[in-house]
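Annex B. Sample input.
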Amino acid sequence: MTVIQDTEQLAHIVFRNAAEGIAVTDARGLILAVNGAFTALTGYTASEAVGRTPAILRSGRHGREFYARMWLALHDEGRWQGEIWNRRKNGEIYPEWLSISTVRDEAGAVLHYVGVFTDISHIMAEQEKLRDLAYHDPLTRLPNRMLLRDRFEQAARRTLRDARQLAVLMIEASPQGKVSNDAFLIGAAQRLAAHVRETDTIARYGENEFLVLIEGIDGPRDASVTADQLLAALEKPLAVDGLDVYAAANVGISLYPLDGYTLDDLATAADAAMLQARAHQRHGYHFYSAEMTAFANERAAIERQLRRALADNALELHFQPQFEVSDGSVVGVEALVRWTDPELGVVDPERFVPIAEDNGLIHPLGEWVMRKAFAQHAAWQAAGIAPPVLSINISARQLARIDFVDSVAALVAETGVSPHTLEFEFRESVLSDVAYVVPALEALDGMGIRLSIDGFGTGFSPLGNLKTLPISKLNIDRSFVSGIGSDQGNDTIVRTVLGVAHTLGLRVIAEGVETEAQAEFLREQGCDEFQGHLFGEAVSGDDFARNFARNFARPHD
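Annex B, continued. Sample output.
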């Protein structure tokens, strides 16, 4: 066999067994031969394709100009390659990568055209997945910041062209209860997406934040209507991990171009407004105003410096005595965190604790307070001068943490404090969702830690909860104590709280007692304990032991 024959046989083998589809045409474009891969990819057998033109594969997606450029390239360069959409025999349209080469004789005349192609459907599907990942949040499947920015730029151009306004809504949503935050966010995203128009865009913007672009509005009223609708949608429970979970939500609103020209500026403004809504309303909305920037900046400064203070151990604990009404003895002490910052000065707990709760710092802050307070009380116990009870404030966010009880147990073991001398105070609002706090409260009670409701009368918890939960004390809020004698309705509330507590066998402590008139009224109504400046201010640990140790009473059972 000659070399030429060997080469021809090899070419035939390659043609027949190639994975790519191959079609050979004559100079007029009539198909002369196709290989097996051509049949597998297109569905046309050799007998069906030979004698016809490749036009049998046309999908209809390309116009005349596309094919004109293809033939021009073949004429001028002898080659064309690119992405093309073709149609299989069964009608399915698919993408392929096609390379066409011109075969000429020695004189330059066209003899054949050879087309080699491969199906790139899977490649395009992967590219689509990558594009989807690049522009959508992987958890909620909502647009991410990148796609949101592109949508905003288009919406802003339309808004200016149509002389209308564009609203930017920052929505903060968090679950009320111990559930998976990821599962909650998926449910919240679906609920919110179902309550915006197709022309609007909702995107995930932060951990628990969504941002909504509302196009084509005529003013603030249209934006407020949408905010109301979204808040109402989140008032209904979400199905999360088989449970009905309620969302705490707040909305901040900024307007384009009134409050800014860029997405970053408008998002910052909406975030400031959302913080204002959270601080004043809880589950409400607020429009941006220039004053909110100062509010947001202050919060950012407090958060930044608080992180530094925790890292540098720059906080302090003060201790305020609690007195038995009947004999004036010290029956307990409340540990209170204090903070003086080099830049911010004295920062009241009313300012920094809510911020710590919002940004997650409440967990390291709460642990710091417990560790320091437990260690101090253990030291007093060792010295024989410990007050009977050490009281510490616990936030709802701490109780909601799955490992909170374990962390308390670890700190008790670390410091050596007796858990039977501890009392945890928590706000009445915690009882609004009893289902998720009961296990934690029962576990703390099982450790011997007493439980009391702080600020009783300011919330809306059912009285039935007081009978079913392991609670031993109610704290009358200082706002009611300060109003004694000046408001008949206020006095009635105090009497009612004392009556309910004693009926249930609970002790009652009045906070913020500052005048003898307040103290006398509370004595007459049967209050058990006092706490306030009239009897003793919050002082350092050393000063507390020095000033009050001689008055310590035996603990109540």
